[in-house]
Amino acid sequence: MKKILTVASVCAIALASCNKDNVGPNSDLNAGLPSKPQATIPTDANGIITKTTLSADTVWKIDGVAFVKPGTTLTILPGTYITSGATKAYSDQTTGLTHHIKGVLVVPKTAKLIANGTASAPIVFTSPNAAGSRNPGDFGGVVLLGSATTNQPTTTKIEGLPQPIGTDVSYGGANAADNSGSLKYVRIEFAGYNLNNNNEINGLTLGGVGTGTTLENIQVSWGKDDGFEFFGGTVNAKYLVALSNDDDDFDFDHGYTGTIQYALSLKDPNSTNSTSSGSSDSNGLESDNEGTTPYAATPKTRPVLKNFTFLGIKDAAVAGTKLKFGNRWRRASQYDIQNSIIAGYATGAAFQDGATGTFTGNVIHAYTAAFSGATPAGNQTNVSTDATTYLKLAGAANIFYPTSPYNPAVLRPLSTSPAYGDGSTTYKGAFHPTNTVWTAGWTQFAPKTY
Fold first, then answer.
1. Three-state helix/strand/coil letters over the chain
2. I want to staple 191 with a disulfide (CB 3.0 to 4.6 A). Which of 87, 141, 337, 446 is the partner?
3. Residue-wise pLDDT tens digits, 51-92
4. Residues 6+ apart with CB under 8 A from 379
């Protein structure tokens, strides 16, 4: 799965995203990007960033793959927009293929990224294209690499990346409290690049990231592969949104053991979806211990998930074709998921290949079967073609994406809902029955057209 690439050449491509630095207002870029000067993030010959701060007065472009220098910190100020710049060609030493990549920001071991936006001024990584012309893969993605524990050798390279001279793109180690920085109020839109099967750049990729890192209020939308992928590590997170991603919204591998609370997964009938052997392979969540039998490496992958909402597609026939499982726990992964909602999938949750754990206090709706491979106790389930009547969420028939405009306030459980609990502390799903939704202000649910 893991490929090591080296820089071969820079493509001379005459695109708007290849403008020279500080060319003045970017009038050729439509509503998604603010009308500000553009500048390419400066790097040395190996792609190492030579700047320490990115300010909001400029739209910053990433040529190819850019790396924060190990031992240093890159700070991105609130309200800053970052997009893809020039495409660079990278030669794959293993396959001999050449890959053309743009817009990837990598934070190697010992480096840090401080990207703390605010609800009124989020930091946005997005497509350079005009409204109506934005697509998955327009931007590359964000990759954090740390020295926290995994169940792989510490020499394991993160998938999908070139390795410049003097820069280590491996992940993992023995420091559970490792600190890769802080991301708050961040959106990552239209990311992703597929080098080959099982070797992709995701929206936000986290390899061996430790508990010293802060991940809060992050939205990944319209990704070409996974929204959030955790390769081992111990990092905790809260307030995450995954929207219209091609493959899995949340993917856990290689011994990830952190805790995530309050997260929303929305599938889109208009997005593309990954396939395997001709059938959909797109899940709300997928978790593996590792990819090789008998899947025995330790520490075992064991995410602790609280207050998630996974929503598939309103139409049962479409969901049965475009999607696979709301949750897919497999390959000896362990799990602990509680107080969550899964709805709009043919099968709510699948337990495969010796996956074990705790799955309680959840509300499950499915079109065909609540569970596959196991029937865990302590959950409320319903199998029918009508999710909305069972769930009784505030938005009635409008809980599934898309509606225009989409407002997650429709997902708050009513007092008659099985997700209501005591209405205060034991509710199910991502949103409190009466409080203001935590997505307010900083999220964007129409990134193709805003």
1. CCCCEEEEEECCCCCHHHCCCCCCECCCCCCCCCCCEEEECCECCCCEECCCEECCCCEEEECCEEECCCCCEEEECCCCEEEECCCEEEEECCCCCEEEECCEEEECCCCEEEEECCCCCCEEEECCCCCCCCCCCCCCEEEEECCCCCCCCCCCECCCCECCCCCCCECCCCCCCCCCEEEEEEEEECCCEEEECCEEECCEEEECCCCCCEEEEEEEECCCCCCEEEECCCCCEEEEEEECCCCCCEEEECCCCCEEEEEEEECCCCCCCCEECCEECCCCEEECCCCCCCCCCCCCCCCEEEEEEEECCCCHHHHHHHCCEEEEECCCCEEEEECCEEEEEEEEEEECCCCEEEEECCEEEEEEEEEECCCCCCCEEEECCCHHHHHCECCHHHCCCCCCCCCHHHHCECCCCCCCCCCCCCCCCCCCCCCCCCCCCCCCCCCCCC
2. 141
3. 999 999 999 999 999 999 999 999 999 999 999 999 998 876
4. 359, 360, 361, 362, 363, 364, 370
Q: Is the dihedral of CA 274, 275, 281, 286 positive or negative?
A: negative
Contact 232, 149 (CB under 8 A): yes
pTM of the model: 0.93
User: What are 107-154's pLDDT values in tens digits?
Assistant: 999 999 999 999 999 999 999 999 999 999 999 999 999 999 999 999
- Beta strands 199-201; 193-196: pairing state: antiparallel
Q: What residues in the chain have per-residue pLDDT under 50?
A: 1-30
Are 388 and 396 in contact, with CB atoms under 8 Å apart? yes
What does the alpha-carbon distance between residue 66 and residue 50 come to, in Å, rounded to a whole number? 10
